[in-house]
Design brief:
It contains 2 helices and 50 strands. By secondary structure, it is mostly beta strands. Strand 8 and strand 9 form a beta hairpin. The longest helix is centred in the first third of the chain and has 12 residues. The N and C termini lie close together (10 Å).
């Protein structure tokens, strides 16, 4: 937890005669103040993308940091629509004049489906009404089939559809697969429509099937232009003039649908008409894959290249079963079969008792500390007894002290709350488990639950019980000498300041899991509450009962599990939301929020069936968001149905799978928290110690992706079958 300092607000009264001198004096005074993200001493700028046309526009930003993205393109994807309530709102964009609408569609049968493609909340339609034989149609002003194809749009086949309207002549022309199928003249000009939807008209009439590559122009394209842009289903390429197509600068909106994730549809036209997705699912085409025969993951059945080709591009990589295997454990450029020191700890593998762990090798000097505890062989720096407690220090990160909190068996074989200092266990007296940790001025503060199963916290090893029956303490923060603990009791959520309970949402299902204190002393608590419709709503509370809901999918649920305050002010939350899914109706999706704005995170990639994911912990490093969590999976293993989770962390949206789960190693696991120090990424959590997906978990940490267990066989008395059972829930690095 960072120390926070109260900023002074200086009110400068500008007098006409003294204005210049005051400004100069303020400049001198401000020069000693910390710089904000824009490099201005004493400034309060919020950095981000200030271009309202960009996909990642930040309405809170006051200084543009150069991060603007015109659109998000992560490969060939498309959106699925359920025929009942899914759609994309692209805003008030429809011109009252000439236009062209175009899209690739794949219709599914739906008894009452109207199959609207690009239509308004009133006055203009482009659709495939099932009740009219599923024939492509378009119209204005209550006459919504002014032009109509004579044949049905085929089911389950991608079809290019478009309609043009020339306001000057009143001519509307309908195209299917770039061929004109109908035309009408004297079509009235459409009245204003305040909203345009992909996959919907008015309050319903939804599309059933898939839609890809949607575009809207402010002119009527020629028939030759229609032919030109219809050549490639995965890329209409409407941004580039070529051949007979000359209208790129007339685009109003162009939604390529290649995000592959999230609830926002970026606008490739550069006009900032970002779509808001409701109950639509991301998919990639069945025919898509790597079409390069030289690639490791070449798919001979693919007919559309989705830009996912992977290549063996260094001598230590091999291609096995369509995947790349890196045969270089320490990434030193020397392949394992030629590398005499695979873990790069300066001890040859032949002499290294642990050739794949750079923190373990030997104890040649007999001081009770591993000679490689610092990450490299060094008898003079292998964990001296600096505090005189008779135990050698261990260094997870040289020059740093790493604190990890959780619970495990003690030397008497009793499960208790504890924390580890660079791997050395420290028991928390009278505790069942501990959840969070922070160190301030050398004092260790931890939150948790007592042996009597009541909320409590510890300062060093002294326990303080918290009022509120049936409670648990989930997170802790220290600010200006005050101790803040977030949690809940049997009547709702709360936090405690110096032991005094402050209620949040009570009298209903509600829990608080995260707490942070801004530089100005404002207290933020994250968690959830159940609303009157029995939905679990992700939210945060400010200074008590002032509750704010963060963004979550319509009809879905969510929870907040952790908080980080960037520079002591900007709030970032980690958790999950429930989103619509073709698999189970709703699927947990890991997410983080910047204040209330949500960013959904990827599922871990695998050939297993994915159920869902969640983010448990969050931190910031040099403006980048890091979060830790898991992806749940199910499937068949050795002929039986099974499932589990694999641990992972995200840097921004990029996902990194961790050892201890089926994707990288074996078994199952989960990451709970994450911190960075000196370019080292440390994640804490649990992982099984064998190939069983149902074995007991063991507390662990991952240092730059490498798995290390905190509990060793000698730490627990013999005879305890599940001696390794333990948890690591939080981390602090000094």
């Amino acid at each position: 937890m960072n120390s926070f300092y109260q900023k002074k607000k200086i009110i400068v009264v500008l007098f006409l005669l003294l204005g210049w001198s005051c400004s100069k004096e303020d400049s001198i005074n401000n020069s000693s103040l910390p710089q904000d993200c824009a490099g201005i001493a004493g400034g309060t700028n919020i950095c981000g993308c200030t271009d309202s046309t960009a996909y990642n526009f930040n309405s809170d930003a006051t200084y543009d940091d150069g991060s603007c993205q015109s659109y998000l393109d992560q490969g060939d994807y498309y959106l699925g629509f359920n025929g009942s309530n899914s759609s994309v709102n692209v805003g008030d964009i429809m011109p009252q004049g000439s236009y062209t609408k175009a899209a690739w569609v794949k219709r599914k049968y739906g008894y009452q489906a109207k199959h609207n493609i690009l239509s308004g909340n009133a006055n203009h339609t482009f659709w495939i009404p099932q009740s009219q034989g599923a024939k492509l149609s378009a119209g204005h002003q209550g006459e919504y089939s002014i032009v109509q194809d004579t044949d049905s749009i085929p089911e389950h086949i991608w079809t290019f559809v478009s309609v043009t309207y020339d306001a000057g002549s009143g001519t509307m022309t309908l195209y299917k697969n770039s061929e004109q199928v109908d035309q009408a003249t004297d079509v009235p000009l459409q009245d204003e429509s305040t909203t345009t939807f992909i996959g919907r008209f008015g309050n319903g009439n939804n599309f059933n099937g898939h839609i890809d590559e949607v575009a809207l122009w402010g002119k009527a394209l020629t028939s030759n232009e229609i032919v030109e842009i219809s050549q490639n289903q995965t890329d209409m390429n409407a941004l580039v003039n070529r051949g007979n197509y000359e209208s790129a600068n007339q685009l109003i909106g162009y939604w390529k649908m290649n995000e592959g994730e999230g609830d926002l549809l970026s606008d490739a036209s550069g006009n900032g008409n970002i779509g808001e997705i409701t109950f639509s699912d991301w998919s990639t085409c069945d025919e898509c894959g790597c079409m390069d025969e030289s690639a490791c993951n070449y798919d001979p059945l693919a007919t559309v290249d989705n830009r996912t080709c992977e290549y063996v591009d260094n001598p230590c990589k091999t291609c096995e079963d369509g995947g790349i295997i890196l045969d270089d454990f320490d990434n030193d450029g020397i392949c394992n079969d030629s590398d005499e020191d695979d873990d790069n700890d300066n001890v040859p593998d032949i002499d290294d008792a642990y050739p794949l762990d750079n923190t373990m090798c030997s104890d040649l000097d007999g001081d009770g500390c591993d000679d490689c505890s610092s990450g490299i062989f060094n008898l003079e720096n292998d964990g001296p007894d600096e505090n005189g407690d008779g135990m050698c220090n261990q260094y997870l990160i040289e020059g740093r002290t790493v604190y990890i909190v959780g619970d495990s068996y003690n030397e008497a074989g009793v499960q208790t709350a504890c924390y580890w200092v660079d791997g050395v266990r420290v028991e928390l007296p009278g505790g069942a488990w501990a959840t969070d940790i922070v160190v301030v001025d050398g004092d260790v503060y931890t939150s948790g639950t007592s042996e009597n199963f009541e909320a409590c916290y510890w300062i060093n090893q002294t326990r303080y019980d918290l009022p509120g029956a049936g409670g648990e303490a989930e997170a802790i923060a220290v600010h200006d000498g005050d101790v803040y603990v977030a949690g809940w009791f049997n009547n709702g959520s709360c936090y405690w300041k110096n032991g005094q309970k402050i209620n949040l949402t009570v009298g209903r299902d509600s829990q608080a899991f995260a707490i942070g204190v801004r530089n100005n002393g404002a207290v933020y608590v994250g968690g959830y509450y159940m609303n009157n419709h029995h939905y679990i709503i992700p939210c945060f509370w400010k200074n008590g009962s002032n509750r704010t809901n963060v963004n979550y999918p319509s009809g879905g649920d969510g929870e907040i599990y952790d908080i980080v305050l960037e520079d002591g002010n900007m709030r970032y939350f980690a958790g999950y939301v429930m989103k619509t899914s073709s698999f189970a109706g709703y699927t947990p999706t890991a997410a983080y929020w910047r204040h209330t704005a949500r960013t959904d995170l990827r599922f871990g990639g695998s050939n297993m069936d994915i159920y869902g994911a969640q983010s448990n912990g969050i931190t910031m490093d040099r403006g980048e968001v890091y979060s830790a969590g898991k992806t749940d999976w199910f499937g068949h293993y050795d002929g039986s149905f099974t499932g589990g989770s694999f641990p992972q962390y995200w840097k921004g949206k990029k996902i990194y799978n961790l050892e201890g789960g089926p994707l990288v190693n074996y078994g199952t696991g989960e990451a709970y928290d994450i911190r960075l120090a000196d370019d080292n990424v440390v994640v804490v959590g649990v992982a099984s110690r064998d190939t069983s997906f149902y074995s007991e978990m063991s507390a662990c940490y991952w240092l730059n992706g490498t798995l290390h267990y905190l509990v060793k066989p000698g730490d627990v008395p013999q005879g305890i079958e599940d001696w390794y059972w333990s948890e690591a829930k939080g981390i602090h690095i000094e």
